[in-house]
Design goal:
The chain has about 170 residues and is α+β, with helices and mostly antiparallel strands. Helices cover about 15% and strands about 20% of the residues. The radius of gyration is 19 Å and the shape is globular.
């Protein structure tokens, strides 16, 4: 691939990558020719949390995470739909490796929250009452901690070490 990612190494600053030498060879052909992003075709990613206590989950997203929302008048009572900010999507294999490095996982979807400084973000969320199910750990792709969500499963909070796509 002709794309090289370059990240500056400046103190504790979050790594940033930029595409250096992207050529048409980077575009893999699809059924209609080379793949190209058409911003009017898909405008956002909509995620869902299925909760045993939706009111507690909604209060957490509103009061602790601080996401603004709009009300869906088609639901009774009107459910909030939260603005989550920029998004990106990765696709991971369900199996791979060999020997001791072999892994397998069922097909599923996952929600993670990205931040620039996990220690500062974790402290800020804890000051608002958030609970984490462990310490920050190095997962290779980034530093991460599991954020407990009332009424729902935990969500990973992480400081990525990989190239970010949400602002392409």
């Amino acid at each position: 691939m002709a794309t090289d990612y370059v990240r500056p190494l400046r103190g504790r600053e979050r790594p940033k990558w930029r595409v250096e030498d992207s050529t048409s060879a980077d575009r893999r052909p699809g059924p209609g020719g080379p793949s190209r992003y058409h911003p009017r075709m898909i405008k956002a990613v909509h995620t869902l949390i299925y909760s045993d206590d939706p009111e507690a989950t909604r209060a957490f997203l509103r009061d602790v995470i601080g996401w603004p929302s709009v009300a869906d008048p088609g639901s009774t009572p009107p459910w909030p739909i939260y603005k989550t900010g920029p998004s990106e999507m990765g696709v991971h294999p369900t199996s791979g490796g060999s020997g001791e490095d072999a892994y397998a996982s069922p097909r599923h979807h996952s929600i993670s929250l990205m931040c620039d400084d996990i220690a500062a973000t974790k402290a800020e969320l804890e000051a608002k009452g958030a609970v984490f199910s462990g310490d920050v750990a190095d997962y290779g792709f980034g530093l991460a901690a599991m954020l407990e969500v009332p009424g729902a499963d935990p969500i990973m909070l992480y400081e990525p070490r990989h190239p970010e796509a949400y602002d392409l």
